[in-house]
Structures are given as C-alpha cells and as structure tokens.
Amino acid sequence: MSAPRSKRVHHGITRVALDGTDSALAARATGTSWRDSLLRYYSLAKPGVLYGNVMTAAAGFLFASPGYIDWFLFLAVCLGTTLVIGSACVLNNVLDRDIDSVMERTKKRATVTGGVQARNAVIYSVVLGVTGMTVLVLWTNVLVVAVGLFGYLAYVVLYGMLSKRMTLHGTLVGSVSGAAPILGGYVGASNALDAGAVIVFLILFFWQLPAFYSISIYRHSEYSKAGVPVISVIRGISYTTVQILGYTIAFVAVSLLPQAFGYVGWSYTIVMGTLGIGWIIMSVAGLKTANPQKWARLMFRCALVIMTSISLMLSIGPRLP
C-alpha cells in the first residue's frame, strides 16, 4: 500500500508540533559518527510532535485518576503510546519524501537527504510500532489498544496517505488522530468510554483546528507552492481566519465542560476560562489584522501555551478545589 505521489506537503499527529523543531534536528544530523546516526533516527520520530502527544496522553490518564494513581499502568500507557506515535511519524516521513523535498522546513529531513534510507526507516518504524503495541497489549487494556490502532491508522492512512493530499478537510481528519493520545490516556486509567472520554477527545480535537489553520496562514506560500490543499490555499486567508475564530470558541466551550460534569472544581475553570477568553480575543483580532502572517504565528504560539496549560490543568484539576 503506497501513498499517491505528488508535490504536496505535511502540515501537521497533534501534530502538536513545536514547529520546525524536527527539521532543525534533521539538519544537524548530517555527520557520519554513531552519534550523528542516532540523531538522524531520533529526528525521524518527530520529537516535537511526539512529546506533545505524550504530554496529552499523560494528562488524559491523570484526569481519569482523581484518587489513586497506578504508576505502573501510567508508565505502560505513556511508553506504549510514545512508541506507537513514533512509529507513525517515522512512516509518515517515508511516505512524504516527495512533498518534504518541496518544503523549506522539511527538505533537510534524513529521509529526503538520504541520511536514512527508506528501507531502514520502514524497519525502524515497524520495530517501534510492534514494540509499542506489545507494551499496550501486555500491560494496559483493550480500549487503549483499540485507540492506539485507530489513531495510528487514522494518522498514517486516512490523513497522511489520503486526505492531506486530496482535500482541504485533511486538517479535520488529522485532528481526529491528534486527539487519540489523550483519549488513550483517559481510557487507560478509566477502562471506560464515558462522558470524560468524550470531553477530553473533543478538547484536543477542537484545539488543533485553530492551531493548524494558523500554520496554514503563515506558511501559505509554501503550501501553495507545494500544491497542498490546505484551507488557506483553497478558501483564502480571510475565510480561514473566520474558521479559526469559530473553532477557538468551540474549543473554549468544550474546555469548560469538565466542571459541569463534576470532574474538576473552580480552580480549573477559572484558569482555563481566563486563558480561553484571551485566545478568543486574539482570534477576533485576526479578522482585521493588516499582517495575517504575523498574527497567525502569534496565534500558533498562543495555541502551544493553551495546549500545555490544558494538559497541566486536566492533570491537577481533579485534585484542586
């Protein structure tokens, strides 16, 4: 099974990226020593994406563990999730060699420069994936395994191989896979698909849309050159800005649901409500900005702060008044 080959570019698992981090690592991994080789393979796992996703998985687990925390289970969920996500990221690099060669921020990735051969990268991906799933199967529960498989296939196949290259709705599909880690963390602790599972999934789903629509604006020229059908290229920057505002409001509304369902107290709501109002105000500013690229960069940086904050507050919120 192979992806359609075209001059298209990757834009996102949360895809929770520290934008450019992975490319910088790949650029430095150009030597021939064993350390340089390790760095090349490390960069293929997209550490910026990887750590962001694992942070949300940990948050989901702790959110579902308001009392006793099973630390062994916590470590098993986080380790298995890390390896599975890393496997998906490595395979995505292999599939995206054509489009990565077009983008300025990705053209120095090891799979593009030849620093890591495609065959070796695929083997590396399989080892990571099999090891990760083994950890999840042996030491977690069926729901975690199911979410892990779903997230993997959604990211690699539905997003990476299909929707990203074919439709402006690729970001919506990618946001489903990006919300899988926090859901996996939650069901790892609760072993249940309940209201809390739906809430944490929707929180991360809606967070990704303003975050990555912002990227599509400030990297508009790169996406356009590569022929990627992101929303800003197909519908325009003004339309994308309106969508960012709408999804930001949706995120804030969903992020305030935990108290309504009895999972957290006022401390969580005050913190996330304040941050959420600030993010909405920033989104509104985009409707009349004279420099949408500058605004979009600021919007994305704010999104990273919001994501870190929501992960922290979901982790400690059940333990605060």
TrEMBL record:
Membrane topology field: Multi-pass membrane protein
CDD domains on file: PT_UbiA_Cox10 (cd13957)
KW Ligase (keyword) present: no
Pathway given in the UniProt record: Porphyrin-containing compound metabolism; heme O biosynthesis; heme O from protoheme: step 1/1
This protein's record includes keyword Cell membrane: yes
Subcellular location: Cell membrane; Membrane
Gene3D superfamilies: UbiA prenyltransferase (1.10.357.140)
Main location, first listed in the record: membrane
GO MF annotation: an example: protoheme IX farnesyltransferase activity
Domain of life, per lineage: Bacteria
InterPro entries reported for this sequence: Protohaem_IX_farnesylTrfase, UbiA_prenyltransferase, UbiA_prenylTrfase_CS, UbiA_sf
Catalytic activity: heme b + (2E,6E)-farnesyl diphosphate + H2O = Fe(II)-heme o + diphosphate
Keyword vocabulary terms for this entry: Cell membrane, Heme biosynthesis, Membrane, Transferase, Transmembrane, Transmembrane helix
HAMAP family from the UniProt entry: CyoE_CtaB
Similarity comment: family membership: Belongs to the UbiA prenyltransferase family. Protoheme IX farnesyltransferase subfamily.
Additional facts recorded: Carbon 2 of the heme B porphyrin ring is defined according to the Fischer nomenclature.
Protein name from the UniProt record: Protoheme IX farnesyltransferase
Lineage start: Bacteria, Bacillati, Actinomycetota, Actinomycetes, Micrococcales
